[in-house]
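Worked example 4.2. Below are the chains of a multi-component assembly; read each line carefully before continuing.
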Amino acid sequence: MLDYCSISHKSGILLWSRSFAPTSHAAGSVTSPVSSLVREALVEGRTADNSFEKNGLAFKWTFVNDLELIFVVAWQRILQLTYVEDLLNALKTVFLKLFEPFLTAFVASLHAASSVSGQASSTWNFATAFENWDSVFDKILRGFEEKATQDRRSRAKPAIRPAAEPSPPSDDSSTIPSQSNAVAVDEQQIARNVEALRNRLRGRGGRTGRRGPARGDTSSGRDSGPPSDSDTPAKRKSKAKAQRKWGDEAPSESEMASLDFSYETVEAHNKGAPDLAALVDEGSLGTRTQDGLYEVKDWEFTSGTDDVIAQMLKNDTRSTPASSSGSLGALGSLFARLTGSKVLTESDLKPVLEGMKQHLMKKNVAKEIAEKVCEGVGESLIGKKVGGFQTTNAAVRSALSNSLTRILTPKTSTDLLLSIRTKMSSPLPSTQQRLPYSITFVGVNGVGKSTNLSKVCFWLIQNNLRVLIAACDTFRSGAVEQLRVHVRNLSMLGVNGATNSKGRVELYERGYGKDAAGIAKEAIAYARDNDFDVVLIDTAGRMQDNEPLMRALAKLVAVNNPDKIIFVGEALVGNEAVDQLTKFDRALRDFSASSGGKERGIDGMLVTKWDTVDDKVGAALSMTYVTGQPIIFVGCGQTYTDLRQLRVANVVQAILSD
Amino acid sequence: MGSKLDAEIMSPVSAFTPQMLVVASLAAAIIIMIALVLLTRRNSAARGDVILLVGLPDAGKTAIMTTLTYKQTLPTHTSMQANSVVVPLGDKSCRVIDIPGHPRIRDQFREYIPSARGIVFVVDSSTVSRNGPAAAEHLHQVMHAITSLPPSKATPSLLILAHKCDLLKSTAQATPAQLAINRARTILERELEKRRASQTSGVGIEGLGAEGSEIDLGGLECTGTGEFRFADWEGGEVAFAGTSVAVGQAASVSDYADDKAVESDGLSSLCQWLEDQL
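Applying the procedure described above to all two chains together yields the following structure tokens:
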């Protein structure tokens, strides 16, 4: 069922791992499943939803923060494994109990503060240290898998669960009679109704066609009587008599009466029988679930005759409430803090994290993102020890600062100039002409795509590059004219002492109403033939929900395969940022993949109107969190020089400032 | 206070005996010597005492660290946090800090640079041709950090370690280690030259916010006029070494000694360099 399971330290050292699939990846190799998990989820701070999928594998993990351990379980995504969470918890508890001294020493050796070699000389034997863990793990896993199959089997039974659930097994005798009574009453009523209907039909039949003889002599004789509604009970009686006559004579009457009753009760019992079975089954399940999570395992393990593990799990449940109640006293916690052994708990963190979340939202971070970031911070802090006089607040603050820095730090190079130069200087086969470096600007309406495109253009010209602007906004009136004015202005500005930069920048336009993808393609061909270095493609603004327009944008991307796709977004955006970016990214990926090309998403962001938000710079965080891509530029004014690079430290400071 | 003490000492003239003078001068000499020793200790501390392991993810930093520390190569995955271990080297020991290579968290190395004695930049020589630009970007940051240290600090020495050289096939002319070193050196020099050219000729974009902290990375200046060469780098000497470790083979106890021999062979050049640094 499972594919892979591992226990490792945050340093990257794998303490123990096991893969179950035959074609699984060797641990420690580049394709190690945990590596991709760490790279793409844990380091990026995307731990909030607590699940991760990659290459058809689903992952779940849990941290032990004081010993810095990670427990990871991976399985085929199509399988629905319900016990993974419990399994992780059980593994964590048992593993810590078994190897705590060794682990403490091991973690301490990874945090050597000075070069004084305390126990560095002692030999480490990782192979023998976890020798018996394999068998323990097998037992735990088997317990959970057995329980899962049991659950599935009991679910497959056609039992009426909700009805039986609240009644404990001892009440069987009281519930069943009442049920059978109800059933009996119902049957009587049904019988009466059927009778009435039949009578009415017969009456009609008697009136119209007289098809009596088909039903036998006796009945036809009775039917010939006057059909009136008032004597229905009499008729029923007579009908019953007729039935008796249909069988035997005198003895049949009493027998039928008794037989009727017995038949009913038997039926009730028959109906009750699956109920009973379900009740018994359900009862045992009920006690299991009622007594709590750990008791379930307890029961499992005692049935599996593994007392040691069960004992450990039991001890754990007992010790947790005790420790939490012990740390309640204010004086006690003060002393604990003084001695440097205060352990952060969920209840400590909750109010602080809530405050932090509010603070982030005040700084214009999207609500969803603020929640996720705070959740991630909380997860990394639970169980950590706070030393000295450091308050919970301060600990959360520093952790949040770290997390923000990590989210905002680009993971790919943001040096646009370098990548342009690299492309220009890369070796080419002699038959091929060098394609220019193309950058596409996309975004919703009115965020400043054309304006910031001209700023980027100015910067590129200053770096002695020849730039062609492709006017692919063929929709909004005045879009082409706007770019023409920019080109005129830019060509009059001097570069490096020259009075103007004629010939360094040109506009490629084909008017309005044409296909944008085609214009872009022609522009790139024109730039290639006329020796331009960079093509900046301006696209029409579009709302992220407008599917035809998004499809057209994806076509432009797929046809021209630009080197960079830059999403232009304004810093004023709040919760909308998440929606915009996810949908643009998704649409680009889906449509470009479906049209046969390679999947392309957004490569970077340009945040405009930065000067209007003061220190409410949360949009930057929302945007980088959603895409994981860097903010390449920030637009912060009206002139061509008002283009800046983002400094992570400044943004973090602005977000955290009060 | 001083004058009062002086007065007390001066007033009993009988105290000015020759023995007293000798004792006083001896005491003064001892004090000066202790002060000198302390000062030199402080000087060596200014150079720092830690060795940093930096490089791209999957280059093998943590594997090297475990091999040095625990004398066995443990299986590893991408690190999430920096590790600080004490490595015994002969009769001495040094502190080695392994910095994760993930781009989002590798900037941690800046905190440790002021206290660094040496920096080991680990390159995976089997993938360096593919990861060249990324490796050069990281190395550029490291070199920039080294050159921008204040002049009062001694610059840490830099070692470029062509790791995983066991994955290369040896030729008639060169051993795998030499091959790996050559490959790493040529590719890194080429990529760094690109970065240097782009830096010197380009007009950068200002950073947002406070002035002062420069956004463009320098630190690639060479004494020669031409292209970037590690030999001509102004930031100091750059050493090269080729190493390899065998993951997982040192797992069992029975062939522990055997594996130890193998490891010391694989990492011997690194150990040699580390010992030179002490």
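Take a moment to check your reading of the output against the notes. Chain A touches chain B through 65 residues (CB under 8 Å). The longest helix of chain A spans residues 250-290.
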